[in-house]
């Protein structure tokens, strides 16, 4: 398993999240080939790191409604 140094990551959250930062994920676009994702309520907690292609497929499925309710 490879680790990614996230100490310099810039995080962003969805424009659909509330202003308090709760109930949302944050992602970083700072890393080639991978997309780190974390819980906005626990910014110092665990981070999931997805391959670019996997994250792009997931976001596409969410936007198109293919994942259901």
What does this 3D model show about the protein?
The protein starts with 10 loop residues before the first strand and ends in a 5-residue tail after the last helix. The chain has one helix and four strands. By secondary structure, the protein is of the alpha+beta class. Helix content is 19%, strand content 26%. It has a four-stranded antiparallel beta sheet. It has one domain.
Descriptive tags:
69 residues; alpha+beta; 4-stranded antiparallel β-sheet; DUF397 domain-containing protein; DUF397
List the helices and strands and how they pair.
Layout: E1 11-13, E2 25-28, E3 34-39, E4 47-51, H1 52-64
Antiparallel strand pairs: 1-2, 2-3, 3-4
Task: Report on the biggest sheet.
Answer: 4 strands, antiparallel
- The helix content is 10-25%
Runs in which pLDDT lies below 50 for 5 or more consecutive residues are none
Count of DSSP H/I helices:
1
Number of individual domains: 1
Which range does the strand content fall in? Answer: 25-35%
Q: Label the structural class.
A: alpha+beta
> Compute the gyration radius: what is it?
13 Å
Q: Care to count the β-strands?
A: 4
How far is it from the N-terminal to the C-terminal residue, by CA? Answer: 33 Å
Q: Note the overall shape.
A: globular
Q: Return the average pLDDT rounded to an integer.
A: 87
Question: What order do the SSEs take from the amino end to the carboxyl end, as H and E?
Answer: EEEEH
Order of strands side by side in the largest beta sheet? 1-2-3-4
């Amino acid at each position: 398993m490879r680790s990614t140094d996230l100490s310099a990551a810039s995080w962003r959250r969805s424009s659909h999240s509330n202003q308090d930062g709760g109930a949302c994920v944050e992602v970083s676009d700072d890393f080639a080939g991978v997309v780190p994702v974390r819980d906005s309520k626990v910014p110092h907690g665990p981070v999931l790191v997805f391959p670019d292609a996997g994250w792009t497929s997931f976001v596409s499925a969410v936007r198109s409604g293919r994942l259901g309710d």
